[in-house]
Amino acid sequence: MPEQLRPSPPEHRSPMRCVIAEDETLLRHGLALVLEQAGFELVGSAVDAPSLVTLTREHVPDLVVTDIRMPPHHTDDGLQAAVQIRTMMPRVGVVVVSQHLQRRYAVDLIGDNPAGVGYLLKQRIGDIPTFCADLQRVCAGGTALDPEVAALMLTRARTDKAAVGRLTVRQQEVLAAMAEGRSNAAIARALFISDKAVVGHVSHIYDQLGLPDCADDHRRVLAVVRYLNG
């Protein structure tokens, strides 16, 4: 076969490297199993917040997944470690998981850079395909907010900002889905409306919020989450 007609060899992609932090042994092992079965390479496992920071510095992984309430103080140590990691190594994707829904956690974690970050509630992890898809999105530089987190932020924004309050109920639903990181097609499926209707709602949302229109879904999500963050 002529050289120019030979098929290219399949592209080899290295598995995404991950560090996890969870002080409960059963949950830690379960999370490790889920990640390994999803194709991640587990390079470190921490049982407290200081160890998480140390392991992340040592391995510089693609992704960090951590509980919020961790030793040594069992308050928001895991969250503070996550914020520290995002400051030191902004290219590392960070996902925090928690049983607790707190707007302050989301605000502290996202800061002014909602790229490569996620805040998910532990009860959602049972939906393993969705959980793994959220992790993949964060690794790719996207945003993954639990629907309840996005709804809480939207409620606060609706109270604080007259522009959000002027959106229709449907537009607020679309905005919440955008903040979760969903594409137009995913929003259409979730809300049982057409893709064209979603595009129309998004356009009106941009107009109402004074946000610049952009064809890039990722940048759109970042703009909306940044707005909801205040």
Automatic annotation (TrEMBL):
The keyword ATP-binding does not apply. One of its GO terms (molecular function) is DNA binding. Keywords: DNA-binding, Phosphoprotein, Transcription, Transcription regulation. Residues 17-137 form the Response regulatory domain. InterPro entries: CheY-like_superfamily, NreC/VraR/RcsB-like_REC, Sig_transdc_resp-reg_C-effctor, Sig_transdc_resp-reg_receiver, Tscrpt_reg_LuxR_C, WalR-like. The modification 4-aspartylphosphate is found at D67. Residues 160-230 form the HTH luxR-type domain. The keyword Transcription regulation applies. CDD domains: LuxR_C_like (cd06170), REC_NarL-like (cd17535). One of its GO terms (biological process) is regulation of DNA-templated transcription. This is DNA-binding response regulator. It comes from Flexivirga endophytica.
